[in-house]
Amino acid sequence: MFKNYLKTMWRNLWKNKMYSFINITGLSMGITCCLLIFLYVQYQLSYDKFNVNTNEIYRLTEVLHLPTEINARAVTSPPMATALKANFPEVKDAVRISYSGRYISYNNKKIQDAKIMYADLGFFNVFTFPAIEGNLQNALSNPYSIVLTQSMAKKYFPQKFSAVGKTMQLSDSIPLTVTAVIKDVPANAHFKFDCILSRNTINAMNNNVSEAEWFDNNYYTYLLLQKNADYHQLEKKFNSFIAVQMKDDIKGTGLYYDLKLQPLTSIHLHSNLNSEIQPNSNIVYVYIFCAAALLILLIACINFINLSTAKSISRAKEIGLRKVIGASRRQLIFQFLGESFLFTVTAAALSIACIILLLPWFSSFTGEQLSLFNFINTDVLLLFAGAIIIVSVTAGIYPAFLLSSFSPVKVFKGTTKYEWRDIFLRKGLVVFQFTIAIVLISGALLVYQQLRFIQNQKLGLNKDQLIEVKLPSSQLSKKDILEQAFVKNPSVINASLTGFSYQEPVSTVATLPEGFSSNEINSIASIFADENFVKTFQIPLVAGRDFSKSFPSDADEAFIINETAVKAFNWKNNNAALGKTIDWGPGKKGKVIGVVKDFNYSSLHDNIKPAIIQILPDAYNFIALRIKPDDMQQTISSLATTWKNIVDEDDFKYSFLDDDFAALYQSEQNLQHVLALFTALSIIIACLGLFGLAAFTIAQRIKEIGIRKVVGATIISILALLSKDFLKLVFIAVCIASPVAWFIVNKWLQNFAYHIQINWFTFILVGLCAMLISLLTVSFQAIKAAIANPIKSLRTE
């Protein structure tokens, strides 16, 4: 019996090639999308789970409550880790990490781009990084100890030599002893490093300076808790404890800390704090990708349902005959579900081949290291098998019950017809298909408009023809020489030494403006730059003067602020702000000499906030160069030559400021690309289904078309007759999809302080495009029927 069913399935598949092609192609596209997104989502959810103690590791973060703002950040002060470990038995271990701007060398060989991290002794007790050489238990116990990753060790030492015990240099002057080599940091870790220095090294270099400063918030603190510890309750205990420890420091300031514990596995997708180690992803985009992939698979399943039900009349005699010779309804249902399963398995096999071909491109597209080997485990294979069964049942259950319900008597009398509910369902499914497609089209178009809006938004500074050269830590001493050499280039209009770049977040510093009491300290963005910053970035000065070397006191006692700062400090107007004093940071006090027009110094996700510009040479790590637009490649080549003449050991690395600004929206750009891809696929699959449905529907009306032609109907009138029913369905889909798309995109736009206003013309345009695509899809079959010889049509049985 099963062999007979299989033969019947195969014959039906081969006999109806177009029907089979549409179903298999649609299902394979849907399954391919789902599998690719499954790999992506699985990778996103796997962040930091390589650690043995994953579920017990938490990051300590703080919410700083100031009189005028709340500042949530990922960094904490150095005393917190040791204090919490010593006073709370729930804390099994605590470790602090920070990054260094220095460089490492060995035998005069430098690697400038190495990520150097300082960490406490307990780092390897908390995190899991397998050792290749050395003993990790004591690897970070002594000052001037360094642990290398495998890739870093290979850059310095041939594989046949052991790195352990070798002496390297920090900044060419401080000896470091290699104590261990570990495997490279997995790509799915929320922080990266190339080497780890013992944190005791910091104390040794600074003559054991005290770490009791509670306001020095520059460290990332991780706690390893006892199993089954309630971290929510522990947060409350921490805050009560810290309030007592810091009562003298915060007395009269009007500020207080609210400590939070973040589970390690939630950082990558759920954390967007100030001072994150590196940009994180967003769980919302994971949800969007999953929803889009599942909706595309659903469109493919709808195709199968529609085409199966539309084709059912042509199989009525087969079903009637089977029933007459004794086939039960249960057996027929089993047969049709089996056909659905055969289609799905064939589509799944084709999908695996597509994934193997597309995965390298998709990995590059998403920027993640995805691998098909993630499928080679029991859980995933079971999930894959279960997905095939679910898709088979979803696509085949309704056609199976419909086909098996035909009455043999009506079949042989030729009176088998669709019931109104079957026709209504099929039309409803077409509407649903195109509703999904139109929502995706509208979403992709509006996301594109928002990204274009961001790129063209006036920032208050001129980001065009402005490049920034990142200064390696080893070359900071040459920054003035480099700037002066660059300025001599005739293609360079202006140059500025600065710490400002869209590549890095702007620092915030506790500030007390004139007119505020000591308990009204504010955390204000501080931009460090030399006297040429305002001219080089072309930021309009609206009051006062710019920094000038003619005023030596500008280096220590002068500030330039933005217009928002004037308002935030409750000063009457821009001119009234001139001469006002500001207490900034630890013991620095100066006067406002100028006010600049507001400019966006960070992402357009946020409104412009108060900012202070000041001269601070120790904080400069970029040289900004405004260059002439003529022959830009020649200018870059000339600048590179100048660089090599002064810095002969390092490559010339630069970036355009507008590219750095665009990089702030990498997640949104990925969203746009994925939506565009899914939109194209949804349209293709929906049109495949519409094409097949139109073919079967028109085939049922072939005699009607012949009679109409005989009595004088034109090709245009027949085309209109056959197309209007389908266009009505697409129009209904447009009416449903437009408000849905508006609601979803409007919610997404709330993430931006600056965003487009959604224009209803966009939905009209999308609707017209959808109807045009549908018309073109249906027209092929309609024109074919309209130009057919009516004599042949009337003879067709």
Report strand %: 15-25%
Q: Looking at the structure, what is the overall shape?
A: globular
For the terminal residues, how far apart are their CA atoms? 32 Å
Structural class: alpha+beta
Main beta-sheet strand count, sense and barrel state: 13 strands, mixed
Average of per-residue pLDDT values:
81
How many distinct beta strands?
A: 24
Give the uncertain stretches in residue-range form: none
**Share of residues in helices:** 40-55%
- Give Rg in angstroms: 34 Å
Our count of helices gives: 27
Task: Explain this structure.
The protein has 797 residues and is an alpha+beta fold. The protein contains 27 helices and 24 strands.
Key features of this structure:
797 residues; 13-stranded mixed β-sheet; 24 strands; alpha+beta; 27 helices; six-stranded mixed barrel; globular; single chain
Précis, in short:
The protein is of the alpha+beta class and 797 residues long. It has 27 helices and 24 strands.
